[in-house]
């Protein structure tokens, strides 16, 4: 009887039955992994947090009813400085605004928390460069590149930023022409200007995005495209769990991967061309790429970066070096248009400092403008470039009395930290640059209560360059133009990899004195 058992089973338990059982098992596993365990059995369930209202989206559905920033601020008030939320497929995020926890994650034990790869399109866009490198690799890359971002080198690139800023000014002047004012979509112009700047200061490469069609600019337009359909967004979310989804040959995936290939190809060619010219003694530049290649040549074999690593640094500089600055500049013009009294006060300071509208400036001159500095700091507080930093723990630990198992996802809510009334006063939810002139407020600002550029070992290596670029472009624009909001043009804040406006920002722009 035993000898015929397999045949008996096959006869009575058909292939369709086996398939049905397999499907039931898979569904059961899916329900357990993405619903029962994270919502009811995980140790993280002991951490307080808002209720989950959707099987697939966790608390994400809530974000569609109200902006994420406001919702996180409210949850922090309700549940405290450490609380739990659920993302797509109920992935648990431990959100924190506690300065001590932030210090532990970002500084004290920074390399015990790795960056999340939940958004593989970010890895595709910037490669395994400084922004995503981990542990000893990150430490080695950062140590090698630090000299390239010194104050001395930052001061030397200021004339390039000034030139491109005035080029942007002339393009806006021409768009206005003889009219009293012109409605201009500001994001695109500023993005092209910052891309041209990073091309020159980063690689001594004339992209000319402001004046001509640029293959690189078009590639980044596709990568950062905000007009995504529901299915495009779903593919992005699914690819964080199932990377093969990005390989499905549908139109959006094909466009995205072609754009990534363009960025990678241009970056690779830049490295090859620059190394050849340096080897032949044909190039003596102070752009970041040249400095990095020269610094790399002086290192031991174990410390040197490979050509691929250098290529990834270029991809990182191109993406992080222009996109975050352009978004912050666009936001600054938007809020200055909504607060004309602040815009007027800033313009008064700029006119006094630079009577000539075609002014040239130095790093030291622009750094001494106190109200400009306050406006820049306030926009970076009010709308931080990155609203939520994610980290994954690599060890079991206890945080604020809660057991946190290895592999848990932390979310440092920078936007919430930047809107705490205990630090910023009762008007924390208002755009008010004058707070930065208040000694009492300034005394409360630390690396863990104000972190627009991150903090600790993973802080932005190009912070000095980014702030100088931000100040110069904004100074040139406010010195030469008046920006007014377009009534009825509603802007929504979208919290993604970078905090961005949707739709693009349209403003009425007029020339000074016209």
Automatic annotation (TrEMBL):
CDD domains: CYP_FUM15-like. Its cofactor is heme. The chain crosses the membrane at residues 12-32. InterPro entries: Cyt_P450 (IPR001128), Cyt_P450_CS (IPR017972), Cyt_P450_E_grp-I (IPR002401), Cyt_P450_sf (IPR036396), Cytochrome_P450_Monoox (IPR050196). PROSITE patterns: CYTOCHROME_P450. Keywords: Heme, Iron, Membrane, Metal-binding, Monooxygenase, Oxidoreductase, Transmembrane, Transmembrane helix. Heme binds at residue 460. It comes from the Eukaryota. GO terms for molecular function: heme binding; iron ion binding; monooxygenase activity; oxidoreductase activity, acting on paired donors, with incorporation or reduction of molecular oxygen. Belongs to the cytochrome P450 family. This is Cytochrome P450. The lineage of its organism: Eukaryota, Fungi, Fungi incertae sedis, Mucoromycota, Glomeromycotina.
């Amino acid at each position: 009887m035993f000898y015929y058992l397999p045949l008996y089973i096959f006869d009575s338990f058909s292939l369709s039955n086996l398939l049905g059982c397999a499907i039931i098992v898979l569904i059961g596993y899916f329900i357990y992994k993405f619903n029962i365990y994270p919502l009811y059995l995980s140790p993280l369930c002991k951490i307080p947090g808002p209720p989950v209202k959707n099987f697939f989206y966790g608390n994400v559905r809530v974000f569609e009813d109200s902006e994420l920033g406001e919702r996180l601020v409210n949850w922090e008030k309700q549940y405290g400085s450490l609380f739990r939320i659920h993302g797509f497929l109920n992935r648990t995020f431990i959100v924190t605004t506690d300065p001590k926890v932030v210090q532990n994650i970002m500084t004290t034990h920074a390399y015990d928390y790795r960056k999340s790869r939940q958004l593989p399109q970010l890895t595709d866009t910037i490669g395994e460069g400084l922004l995503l490198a981990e542990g000893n690799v990150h430490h080695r890359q950062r140590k090698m590149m630090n000299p390239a971002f010194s104050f001395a080198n930052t001061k030397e690139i200021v004339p390039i930023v000034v030139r491109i800023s005035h080029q942007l000014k002339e393009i806006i002047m021409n768009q206005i022409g003889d009219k009293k004012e012109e409605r201009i979509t500001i994001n695109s112009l500023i993005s092209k200007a910052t891309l041209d700047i990073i091309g020159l200061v980063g690689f001594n490469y004339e992209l000319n995005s402001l004046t001509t069609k640029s293959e690189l600019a078009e590639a980044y337009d596709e990568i950062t495209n905000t007009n995504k359909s529901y299915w495009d967004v779903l593919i992005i979310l699914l690819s964080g769990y199932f990377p093969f989804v990005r390989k499905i040959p549908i139109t959006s995936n094909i466009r995205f991967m072609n754009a990534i290939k363009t960025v990678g190809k241009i970056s690779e060619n830049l490295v090859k061309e620059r190394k050849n010219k340096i080897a032949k003694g044909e190039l003596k530049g102070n752009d970041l790429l040249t400095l990095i290649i020269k610094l790399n040549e002086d290192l031991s074999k174990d410390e040197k970066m490979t050509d691929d690593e250098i290529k990834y640094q270029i991809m990182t500089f191109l993406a992080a070096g222009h996109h975050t600055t352009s978004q912050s500049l666009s936001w600054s013009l938007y809020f200055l248009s909504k607060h004309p009294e602040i815009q007027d006060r800033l313009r008064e300071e700029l006119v006094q400092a630079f009577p000539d509208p075609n002014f040239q400036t130095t790093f030291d001159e622009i750094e001494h403008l106190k109200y400009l500095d306050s406006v820049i700091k306030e926009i970076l507080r009010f709308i931080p470039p990155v609203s939520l930093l994610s980290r994954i723990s690599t060890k079991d630990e206890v945080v604020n009395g809660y057991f946190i198992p290895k592999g848990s996802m932390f979310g440092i809510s920078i936007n919430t930290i930047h809107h705490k009334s205990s630090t910023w006063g009762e008007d924390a939810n208002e755009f008010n640059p004058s707070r930065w002139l208040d000694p009492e407020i300034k005394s409360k600002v630390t690396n863990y209560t104000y972190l627009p550029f991150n903090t600790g070992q993973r802080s932005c290596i190009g912070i000095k360059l980014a702030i100088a670029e931000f100040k110069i472009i904004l100074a040139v624009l406010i010195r030469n133009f008046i920006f007014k909001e377009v009534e009825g043009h509603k802007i929504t804040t979208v919290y993604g990899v970078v905090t961005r406006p949707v739709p693009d920002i349209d403003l009425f722009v007029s020339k000074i004195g016209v």
